[in-house]
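Table S2 (continued). Query chain:
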Amino acid sequence: MTPAELSRTVLRAVRRAVDEGVLRAPVPERAVVERPRPGGRGDYATNVALKLAGPAGRPAREVAEILRALLIGYEAISDVEVTGPGFLNFTLAQDAHASVVRTVLTQGRAYGHGGALAGDVVRVGRGPLADAVARLAHAQGATVVRTETGEPGSLPSALVARLGRDAAVWSLLWPTATASPDDLLVQRETNPLFRVRYAHARTRALVRNAGTLGFEGEGEGEGEREVSVEEEGDQLGRVLVDYPGVLEAAARHRAPDRLARHLDMAAEAFFRFHDTHPVLPPGDEKPSVAHRSRLALAEATGTVLAGGLSLLGISAPEHL
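Corresponding output:
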């Protein structure tokens, strides 16, 4: 369950409470779901009860308890707690991250795209930053209108000549990623662009090598993906879960750097998992269910990295 899916689930609970007459308040257009703040618990939290308290004429904690009773039965949610003045805190079921991997593998690079900005008109100028904003807004359902104002229509030729197009775009979208733009030329882990693109290339190499060994991240019989994400892969699974919310926020706030930062976080999480959990079996050992699960997680990570880089206007080579 992604934050967007959890948000829709919360809104369904609100609508049900209103329809059943246990809550008298207008149903909001959206419910913000984010990581718990200090003092919170579980995987995600929402302040929707605090927003509804005034219109409903009831204490926020009372509203939260009404919603908690309606949300606790959902299969993907293992627990719902009320904390503080009325925050709803969610702990997802153990296989929730596995279901996200299945979703990524099914939707491909379209994972995270949606209609959050449907009906909005986003006006952008020209240039790499405007192009990235336009792609992000379009991916969230907005209508994009180009204007002739704003930044220059092309990258500075001197910057492209020095860094290459991809690094030049990255340096403009996330200017604080490195101490100097020239650091983007260094192929080592201190270079976030290299880190992200190398993580993508590594995931593709794993898929190719697994194919050579005769297996893929799928189960037997019905062909369902074996994605019982191991506990150690939980952090990487969380990054994939958060990706749709990051895309929406980046589009809503016209901030492509948010996506760049998240891709860097995904790359770091992937390498941590990859270094401690071999995706390919050693020697002549046959691939186990664990290897298939890890391969599915790696493939999903590569899909997210490629999709994110594409939205930023940066290539995702399969070989580095």
